[in-house]
Design a protein that fits this description.
seven-stranded mixed sheet; mainly beta; single chain; four-stranded antiparallel sheet; 112 residues
């Protein structure tokens, strides 16, 4: 069984930065793809960034050049460095491991 716990969310002003972390338990972490999703109020949950087991990354167009996803396989952690934050980045951010495991979410609020 895999359990994911996110941290690092909070309130930040436009142009600021936050770093989200996701800590996983269980086995086979290094063999699984990982991703960050976000869901704003009244909207669907959308992919923000994903990282393959060997490090290949993919980003939503809205965050390219501002967000960076990374992972530490030894520590079983996934990170999302978010720079130049905008009010439209406000959402609950979720980490996902493989196709089935989700964290509980962490709130990110960007004030204008």
């Amino acid at each position: 069984q895999v359990h994911l716990v996110e941290s690092g969310g909070g309130l930040v002003q436009t142009g600021g930065s936050l770093r989200l972390s996701c800590t996983a338990s269980g086995n086979y972490f290094r063999a699984m793809s990982a991703a960050w999703y976000r869901q704003a109020p009244g909207k669907e949950r959308d992919l923000v960034a994903e990282i393959a087991p060997f490090g290949n990354t993919k980003y939503a167009d809205s965050v390219k050049g501002r967000f960076t996803i990374s992972r530490d396989n030894d520590k079983k952690m996934i990170f999302l460095q978010m720079d130049d934050l905008k009010p439209e980045d406000t959402a609950v951010y979720y980490c996902k491991l493989s196709s089935q495991y989700w964290g509980q979410g962490t709130q990110v609020t960007v004030s204008s």
